Protein 1
Amino acid sequence: MVSIDQCVVRKAFETFSAKKNIVSGWQFSIYLSGQSLRDETFMKFVIDTFQADRCFARADML
């Protein structure tokens, strides 16, 4: 399940970044599994992915 959530997060970030002119100012939620939220490496993955392409969101929104 963690790998599925990673794929969803990665694809969402890629899509939001590619459409930043359209989604500017919008807020999004991504539903994640409890398994991913308990996984110690998952949050690091989210932060690393966010930092690699932070042009679409503010850090305080994470």
Protein 2
Amino acid sequence: KFCETSLQTCKRPGNILKRTLCENVDSGYIVTGAAAAVLGENLARDIQDSKGATLKEIWGEHHTEKFAETNLRLGSRGFISLLDAVAGPSAAGTKPPKIETVEQLEKLAEKGGLKFQDLIVSSKESYQSDVEKMLTGRSHLQLSDKGKEVLQAQIERAIEATNTPKNLQRLDDMTQPSARKVGNTRVDVADTPVEREALVLSAISQAEKFIYLPGFVVTRAVAAAIAERREQLSSEGKKLDVRVVADAGLYPHGGTPNSYGVKLLEDRGIQPRWAKLERSGIHDRKIHAKQLITDKGEITGSTNFSTQGLRENWETSAYVHFNENDPESAAAKAKSIEQFTELWNQSFELSTIDYADYLTQDDGEIGKEWFIEETRDSAIRHSLRLIGNYERETGKLHQDILNENAEVQARKAELQAEGYSYGDATLKAVSEVLGEQEYREMLRNLDTNQTLEQLQSKVNNYVLGVDTETASFNPEDLQMPAEILFA
């Protein structure tokens, strides 16, 4: 669906790639005109298709049965939200209660007529320590059959609430945007799986000068398409600048969805980076952007560049064509490049091949390539654990500054009054009051950042064969770095 329309980037001043309310790295456009009308029509269609659906219609019979058989685990946030919902309604805008002890959690469960110990799989001997560990964010606890019943009941209750006659009537009241032409920017809208996949492949195949991708998920398929475009242009004597920043999140079991795509890019001569995202407090941040920027245009929307995102999920994406002759379009392109470049410059680069080479240096030369390949996933997990430690320390740093600096407190309050979220306001206030140079220097001097830089230097020196004392191998390097929690 090709539309000429008017656009502007989402205006969240001071935010890298327009962070969401939880400061995630994100992107988006305000679209008006013909493309907005198409988006509105698609939304209205989807609402009518979904209106009145029951839990089994949404999940399917098989998934409902599987729910009872699956090993389900929740963390502290999940348990607190569940128990808060069971305890009864709260006023709009009310935050979940602050729970720090086992006793507080048990009292919250009692408000809903529940005994917390009945909701989890845990022995009497380990119950206290298991729950304490979960509350500090170091583990997730398995739901018992009773816990699953409580969770499913809340889901059913939520579905029933959306299907009240009053709510269903509201869903019919949608004012559609005008399709009147208001600009000169072409926007391609895609919402079916075939359209979304074609949109991504088309954007990659049209790139002539650069491809920039900040990704929550970077799969092998998308990585391969980017690498092939780069190789195609190289065979024609042209250079394609490829920069990929992958989200540094780890699964609870220690893996990451980005290992396959990152390793493929490295194997094809492209060195990605891992995002290092400063936190405003205890909660984490993610690369939430579904964004791909080229010299010809930019993809944005809700579609992750994963197999599920492109082929299975219910998503919408748009491809904004850049037009150098249109000042509005040229400004949007420049802004996107500027914001991505800032993210790129603050991200962490370390080749998994080089790191694995360093970790296997005592294994001998015979079969060296095999040892390196087998160790690359461990190298990724080690790097991401250290990045996680850095991000947690930045959260403590921002909270300490906020608690101790009255000027930062005042500026944060002003920003929140302007509409900034708590996290956005905190990060921006600290940076503004301290000054960008002093702020960045403070971040660079954090112990966890020094650990990352020392690792980077050690591995690079080993690969280059210089400063062998600094690059000397310690058997402890093979162990997973400890997770550091900051009170």
Protein 3
Amino acid sequence: MITIGFRSLLFAEIAGLPVSPDLTTLATWRAKVDELPYVKNRKAQEILPSDLARLGQ
């Protein structure tokens, strides 16, 4: 199960919302979560070019 915080960061990435680089603890946590097998190997949540086009990016 992916946490709400991780889903929020994923949404921010898709929506093009900046995440402050000053939030080093958040960045460290995101890197750790990204390496978890159930996150690293996820398929349904890949951001595809068609997704970005649909969202106007």
Protein 4
Amino acid sequence: MKKGILFCAIAVLFVSCISQPQTQAIQEKAPEIVIPSLSQDEAIKIVNSALNEIDALIKKYAKAKELRDVWKVVSKVIRDGRLTFSIYYDDNSILFGGAFAIQNDNKPVIKLSNGILSLYKYKPSVLMAIMMHELTHAYFYFTMGSKFLERCNDRKEKNWYEADAIHIEAVFIEECLKPNNYELSAFEVFLLDSWQNDNLDSACTVMTHESSEAILIFDRLTNTYLDDEITVDDAFAEIKEYALDLLEVLNNKKISKEFWAITVLRLNSWLYYFNRFLFETDLEELAFLLAEDIECVRLVYEMRDTITGVVDSNFNRAQAILDDVVETWEKSLQHILLSSQQAA
């Protein structure tokens, strides 16, 4: 018997998916493409091949403990038959061709599209990277159980888990794919660049429309304030500097429209998590009173009004710009797939 990871393929199933929030918008904008549907045997062979390739790469090249930990858990539940794969033969999306979901019978499944599986023969890195992303969601499900699903109903928690999945995806690209000379797609190059330059904040902002940096900053401020490690003045001073930095970037006329859009969405995250910080620390009333006497508190409230205006005026345009970026990556991969199939 051939050694490797075995899985149970399931025919087309329609289930609710935990995936990147803009999936629906991207798929609605993407043009219809004609890609021959794989047979079930072909799909099974591709998934098994990708899983075994991931297994070999991680065992030989992965250094990051978090990457190895994720694979240790998910590879076992795949072998045990507790995590299966569902092939969507009529779905030709690529970048959003994977999703972790819970079926109606409460069984977890990784959904993979016909498009992303078909691309594996010509650009295998894309399928493997996206599989690692979705397998990270599965990792949290199997290590946390129902708490993971419950927490995904909360905006902060859902985006935190999404950031974790993007992180594992980026580390896998960095440690396992790039050193082995896989030809990376433009999306993977962007992801790796974001990981190496801004701790994945730009990647998270583009893919989820939420700033992972904002989540981290306000979560830390909330916890340190509640633990009496910082004062109101300290917290508001840092919040002020964070807002000033974002506004300074926004006012830079030399930045690209894409970076402008990222900054608008970062400001939207600042606005949401600042208001959440006030609620979770029970500071709304006290801080408002302190604004009369403490300059940094007053300035933060003034900036909140400014940022609210910026976001209200520009949010939809910024979203559209970033969705166009992702759609460009998607079309590029579709072109690679179609041209490769035609040349074969």
